[in-house]
UniProtKB/TrEMBL annotation:
Domain N-acetyltransferase stretches: 13-151
Protein name per UniProt: N-acetyltransferase domain-containing protein
Keyword field: Acyltransferase, Transferase
Domain of life: Bacteria
A Pfam short name: Acetyltransf_7
């Protein structure tokens, strides 16, 4: 089941755990200067929520949260800010279900920024109709909609959902 998540002390620890478990896939793949352990601190998670990132979660049959996606409304677009599934639950379509929910639920184009070296993430979004933008548009979009350091801009890509091309 897909549902809205609460970052009010009741689920933040679970979401934090899912993110940091799944982000271990980045270790040794993304630039070493961009990886930390834990990948996301609890303070960073809370600041993301304070900045308008809303989390959606996928529960298994027992009601355990096993995957999350964070989305942020930025006016004319929505950003997928976080997309993580517990390591032991990957390959079961959970990410696809969460993404389909976000694509069906919104009326704005979805953009995703991810690491250029995270080929599995890029392939995942491309399988769902997203297209990678060119270098110039990537830099413009990252500087317009995200607040990330230049080093992250250098090492990232941006993908846009199918509605982006009709803008």
């Amino acid at each position: 089941m897909i549902r809205s998540c609460a970052i009010d002390g009741s689920e933040d620890v679970i979401i934090h755990s899912i993110i940091n478990d799944a982000a271990q896939a980045y270790k040794g793949i993304i630039p070493q200067d961009r990886f930390s352990d834990p990948y996301m601190s609890m303070e960073h998670l809370k600041s993301e929520v304070a900045d308008g990132v809303a989390f959606w979660g996928y529960e298994d049959e027992e009601g355990n949260l096993i995957g999350v996606m964070g989305v942020q409304d930025k006016g004319d677009v929505a950003l997928i800010r976080h997309a993580y599934v517990r390591t032991n639950q990957r390959g079961k379509g959970i990410g696809s279900k969460l993404l389909a929910h976000l694509m069906d639920d919104g009326d704005k184009p979805l953009l995703i920024g991810t690491w250029a070296s995270a080929s599995w993430a890029i392939s995942f979004y491309m399988r769902h109709g997203f297209k990678q933008v060119d270098q110039q548009e990537k830099e413009q979009l990252l500087r317009t909609y995200w607040s990330i350091p230049d080093r992250q801009i250098e090492t990232s890509v941006v993908l846009c959902d199918p509605s982006w091309s009709t803008r």
